[in-house]
C-alpha cells in the first residue's frame, strides 16, 4: 500500500509517504521530520489517519490524503488552538475598585468579557490584545466596579472557533470599596438642618417667654398706678 499525506500550500508538499510498510522520512518536508506516523494496528482495517505530534501553529491548514492503489483522495482541515486560564488582580481607586484580567497563550485571537454576579455583561473598554513572537495572543482588560449585590465578578476569555472558554471569578470584600460620599453628604446636610431647626425653636421659645414676661410686668405696673390713684 502506498499512502501520501501532503499540504497543498507548501512548496515541498509531502508530509508523509508510506510505501509497503515503511515511512520514507527523507522525502518529507523538513518541518515534519520525526513528527508524523500512521497506526500500524489501524492500517490492517484500512485506517490511514495521520498522527501528528508536537503540534505547532504553523501546522494549521488543509491536508490531502491520497491512496495510490485506490486512486482516491480526501481533504482534511486541521484547526490548531491554544488556551489558558486568566489571572485577576484587584486595586483600589477613588471611584471604586479596579479589576484587571490577563490571559496568555491563546490561539486564535480570543475575546474577553466581564460579568457580574448575575451573569450580566459589565460595561468595560475594549480589551488590549498583543500577539507574541511565538504567534500566541495575550489579552488583557481592566474595569472599575462599584459596590453591588454579591460583589462577585467574572473575567471570561473565549474562542468560538476552537470552542474553548476559560474564566475566573473573584469576590470583592465590602471594605475595599470607598465610602459612599453621597450618603455622607446627605447625612451631614440633614444634621445641619436639624441644628438650624433646633436653634430657631429655642429662639422662638425665648422670644415668647420674653414677650410673656414683658406683658406681665406691664400689667403689674398698671395695677400699681391704679392702687396709688385710689389712695
From TrEMBL:
GO terms for biological process: regulation of cytokine production; T cell receptor signaling pathway. The chain crosses the membrane at residues 185-210. Its main location: membrane. PROSITE patterns: IG_LIKE. It comes from the Eukaryota. Keywords: Immunoglobulin domain, Membrane, Transmembrane, Transmembrane helix. Residues 1-76, 86-171 form the Ig-like domain. Gene3D superfamilies: Immunoglobulins. It is found in: Membrane. GO terms for cellular component: external side of plasma membrane. The keyword RNA-binding does not apply. One of its GO terms (molecular function) is signaling receptor binding. PANTHER family: BUTYROPHILIN, ICOS LIGAND. This is Ig-like domain-containing protein. It comes from Myripristis murdjan (pinecone soldierfish).
Amino acid at each position: 500500500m502506498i499512502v501520501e499525506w501532503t499540504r497543498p500550500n507548501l512548496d515541498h508538499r509531502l508530509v508523509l509517504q508510506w510505501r509497503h510498510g515503511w515511512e520514507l522520512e527523507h522525502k518529507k518536508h523538513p518541518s515534519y521530520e520525526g513528527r508524523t506516523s500512521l497506526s500500524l494496528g489501524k492500517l490492517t482495517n484500512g485506517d490511514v489517519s495521520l498522527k501528528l505530534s508536537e503540534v505547532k501553529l504553523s501546522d494549521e491548514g488543509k491536508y490531502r490524503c491520497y491512496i495510490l492503489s485506490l486512486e482516491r483522495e480526501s481533504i482534511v482541515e486541521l484547526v490548531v488552538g491554544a488556551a489558558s486560564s486568566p489571572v485577576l488582580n484587584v486595586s483600589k481607586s477613588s471611584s471604586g475598585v479596579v479589576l484587571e484580567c490577563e490571559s496568555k497563550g491563546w490561539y486564535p485571537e480570543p475575546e474577553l468579557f466581564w460579568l457580574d454576579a448575575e451573569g450580566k455583561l459589565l460595561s468595560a473598554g475594549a480589551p488590549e490584545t498583543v500577539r507574541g513572537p511565538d504567534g500566541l495572543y495575550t489579552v488583557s482588560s481592566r474595569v472599575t466596579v462599584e459596590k453591588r449585590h454579591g460583589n462577585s465578578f467574572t473575567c471570561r476569555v473565549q474562542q468560538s472557533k476552537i470552542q474553548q472558554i476559560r474564566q475566573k471569578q473573584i469576590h470583592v470584600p465590602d471594605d475595599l470599596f470607598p465610602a459612599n460620599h453621597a450618603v455622607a453628604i446627605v447625612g451631614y446636610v440633614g444634621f445641619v438642618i436639624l441644628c438650624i431647626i433646633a436653634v430657631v425653636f429655642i429662639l422662638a421659645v425665648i422670644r415668647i417667654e420674653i414677650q410673656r414676661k414683658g406683658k406681665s410686668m406691664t400689667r403689674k405696673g398698671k395695677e400699681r398706678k391704679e392702687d396709688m390713684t385710689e389712695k
